[in-house]
Structure formats: C-alpha cells, structure tokens
Amino acid sequence: MWLRNLLLLGTVVYSISAPTRPFQHMDAIREAQILLNESSKTAAVTNETVEVVSEMFDPQKPTCLQQHLELYTKGLRGNLTKLSSTLTLIASYYKQHFSFAPEISCETEIVTLKAFKEKLYKFLVIIPLVWEPAQK
C-alpha cells in the first residue's frame, strides 16, 4: 500500500516538474510576427530612429543573439511595446538553451522605425533556425 502511494506521489511530482509547453518560444515568435504584420498596416512615425545591431543575424554563426534581442526590446515604440514580454521570453529561452552562442559586442547602427520593423520581422523568421551544434 505504501509503495503504491509512493509511486503515485513520484508520478505527481514528476508531472508537475515536467515542462508543459516546450515550444512556448515558437508561439511567442509567431505572436510577434502577427503583431508586426498588423502594425505595418497602420501609419507610423517614420522619422523616429532606433538602434539595432548592424549585421544581420546568421543562424549558422549565432553571435550577438542576446544583443539583438536586447536592442529590439529597447527599440519598441507605440503599439509595438506589446512585444516586450514576448521578446523577453524568447531571450530567456535562447539564453537557457543555447549558451554556446558567443556573446561578443557587435556594431550597432541607427535606423528608422520602418527599417527597425523590417529587421525585427526578418530576425523573427530566422531565429527558429538556430540549433545547438552537434557535439564532437
């Protein structure tokens, strides 16, 4: 009887500690893409400028991943500020699961808000392609 109770308790503890949404970052990426598409349909102040990493993100050499996400989060304006928590979730996921990505200081540039939205959208399309390299 006590063995059965112990087994039941172990099963409950294991199920509680198991991740319930392993692809939550993918949902966040899709949500961000939808919000960006909706915001591009509305008129925006195009003379406003934002700082971004000047080099386009490369999933084969994922350097400056956290810097990209940090600058994109800082650059959110207007109704795009809804993306702040989404980008934070994506950043924490990649920080936890892809610690191999070297974080060097990358060059930045100042772009218009319109260019910022385009760069962010392209980044969100590319980022799911990052996979941890096979161990040798």
Automatic annotation (TrEMBL):
Know the name of this protein? Answer: Granulocyte-macrophage colony-stimulating factor
Describe the protein's quaternary organization and the partners it interacts with: Monomer. The signaling GM-CSF receptor complex is a dodecamer of two head-to-head hexamers of two alpha, two beta, and two ligand subunits.
> Per the record's keyword annotation, is Methyltransferase included, yes or no?
no
Query: Mind listing the GO molecular function terms for this protein?
Result: cytokine activity; granulocyte macrophage colony-stimulating factor receptor binding; growth factor activity
This protein's UniProt keywords: Cytokine, Disulfide bond, Glycoprotein, Growth factor, Secreted, Signal
The lineage's top-level taxon is Eukaryota
- Name its species: Hipposideros armiger (Great Himalayan leaf-nosed bat)
A biological process (GO) annotation for this entry?
myeloid cell differentiation
Asked if the record carries the keyword Transmembrane, the reply is no
The record, for Pfam families, names: GM_CSF (PF01109)
Q: Which family does it belong to?
A: Belongs to the GM-CSF family.
SMART domains for the chain: CSF2
- First and last residue of the signal peptide: 1-17
> Which gene name does the record give?
CSF2
Q: What is its main location?
A: secreted
Subcellular localization, per the record?
Secreted
Q: What SUPFAM superfamilies does UniProt report for this protein, alphabetically?
A: 4-helical cytokines
A GO cellular component entry from the record: extracellular space
Its biological function?
Cytokine that stimulates the growth and differentiation of hematopoietic precursor cells from various lineages, including granulocytes, macrophages, eosinophils and erythrocytes.
